[in-house]
Design a protein that fits this description.
elongated; alpha/beta; 8 helices; 8-stranded mixed beta sheet; 273 residues
């Protein structure tokens, strides 16, 4: 009995040693892997995250790391978000001590809020703090600017520019989505409507399949007449086409996006310190 109890205690200790609590918890909004934050700082940042999530409905994450696993800061942030959330909309703020870099990435709906200009403002705010080694202040400043973007930006005025394909997507076009359930319902409705229409036609005209057929190749005749077209007058209209502006030709803020390793599209940026 004592041996069994000791064995269970050893196995439990090994589990805690191999899987430290909080290292990579599922949907962990604040994960301080690099150990940069004091307890009070962590509480303040967690409260900021909670408020932004409640207002926006996004998944909001703040992460620090001292080992980017061979990736750049932006790629690490994208990978982390892909791995630890199933939500489509959200942002992640990262302090990467391995690459000496801060990063912001926005996904889904939030891409229309975190435009290129807003990403620069977020990085500017974080850079002022990170150069003073104020790590808690860095995340607080970045999250504060992200919250400001959510409050002040009108996503319907903004657009996405895909740097991989050159495609431009405005807010309206980006929200033309049909779910699988909607597609299934539409397909069933189309089949039912088609069946009702066909049944109505057959019943009205009392069609019988296999009835008499008209041999058009034997009884049909074709007469062709030659005809010439004459050009009487020719008009040429000149119209001035305005040149596109340097920001891609669309009004509003631009969010430059690309598809990350996890298959998600995101906007944002990073900055060395």
């Amino acid at each position: 009995m004592r041996l069994t109890f000791r064995l269970a205690a050893v196995l439990l200790a090994l589990c805690f040693f191999l899987c430290p609590v909080g290292a990579k918890a599922q949907n962990a909004q604040l994960t301080d892997q690099a150990g940069l934050l004091a307890e009070e700082e962590g509480k303040g940042i967690a409260q900021q995250i909670k408020e932004l999530e409640k207002s926006s409905g996004w998944e909001v994450m703040a992460v620090t790391t001292e080992d980017a696993e061979g990736m750049g800061a932006q790629e690490y942030a994208e990978t982390w978000f892909d791995e630890y959330t199933e939500k489509e909309d959200g942002i992640i703020c990262l302090i990467d001590m391995d690459n000496r870099e801060i990063a912001i990435r926005a996904f889904g709906e939030s891409r229309y809020y975190i435009t290129d200009d807003r990403a620069d403002a977020i990085l500017d705010a974080g850079y002022k703090k990170i150069t003073k080694e104020d790590y808690g202040g860095t995340l607080e400043a970045m999250l504060s600017e992200a919250y400001k973007a959510y409050q002040e930006e009108n996503p319907k005025d903004n657009y996405l520019y895909n740097q991989d394909t050159g495609e431009v997507t405005d807010y309206k076009k980006g929200h033309r989505r049909i779910t699988r359930i909607e597609a299934l319902i539409a397909a069933i409705a189309a089949i039912v409507a088609g069946g009702v229409t066909a049944g109505s036609v057959i019943g009205t005209y009392r069609l019988k399949f296999g009835g008499p057929q008209y041999p058009i190749e034997k009884n049909g005749r074709i007469r062709l007449k030659s005809q010439k077209d004459r050009l009487v007058n020719q008009f040429i209209t000149h119209r001035h086409i305005p040149r596109e502006s340097s920001d891609g030709g669309s009004q509003g803020g631009r969010s430059t996006i690309h598809t990350g390793a996890g298959g998600r599209s995101s906007s944002g940026g990073s900055r060395k310190f």
